[in-house]
Specification:
7-stranded antiparallel β-sheet, single chain, 6 helices, Chemotaxis protein chec
């Protein structure tokens, strides 16, 4: 699947608008602004997701949401364990209870951030596509990147080849944090999103992209 520069710019704009929306909501909740930037937004082959996360052995936390509507799918927001603890510390205003482990309060805070990010990005995608996206309540996971992604894809039974990948960077005080937001649509959902975005697809053949 190939994309023009104009099409890539549309995806980046979805990420930029969505992150701006999410930053505004977070600022209202926390009483301080945590800037969110999107250095990259693109459709990524699922075979490359684990590489984008830093390799299969990287310890990560993931928050999973289902998406219903005319383009159903699944959202996964992933952070390295260190970044997850720093972000939860900023959200809660307290240091980690146990380094390398997340308390229930910290998991709840990260789940709420994922809800906010999902709402921001899905609303922006809806503006560009005129499609409706409805997220479900989040579920939490903590594992190595390879095992977590394999388990998630097996559990939800997705057979799509691509994910909308939005790299999401947070800045709070002197800390820079990087998260990875993935929207993995069903095959029919991907088709609807691509058509609504006006994406032209170039297939090398019927079985190889």
């Amino acid at each position: 699947m190939e994309f023009t520069q104009a099409e890539m710019d549309v995806l980046k704009e979805v990420g930029t608008i969505g992150s701006g929306n999410a930053a505004t909501v977070l600022a209202s909740m926390l009483g301080q602004r945590i800037p969110i930037t999107v250095p990259e937004a693109r459709f990524l082959p699922l075979s490359e997701v684990v590489t984008a996360l830093g390799g299969p052995e990287r310890e990560v936390v993931g928050i999973l949401l289902g998406v219903s509507g005319p383009a159903p799918g699944t959202i996964i927001f992933l952070l390295g364990i260190e970044d997850a603890q720093i972000l939860s510390q900023k959200l809660l205003g307290a240091p980690p209870e146990v380094p390398g482990q997340l308390s229930e309060m910290e998991k709840s805070a990260l789940s709420e951030v994922t809800n906010i990010l999902s709402g921001g990005y899905l609303n922006a995608l809806s503006q560009f596509t005129s499609l409706t996206f409805e997220p479900t309540p989040p579920a939490f996971a903590h594992d190595m990147a390879g095992a977590l992604i394999d388990a998630v894809l097996a559990e939800v039974g997705l057979v799509s080849d691509y994910a909308l990948f939005i790299e999401t960077n947070f800045t709070a005080d002197q800390d820079g944090l990087s998260g990875h937001f993935f929207l993995i649509p069903s095959p029919d959902g991907l088709e609807r999103i691509l058509q609504a975005l006006g994406v032209r697809r170039t297939w090398e053949n019927s079985s190889k992209i």
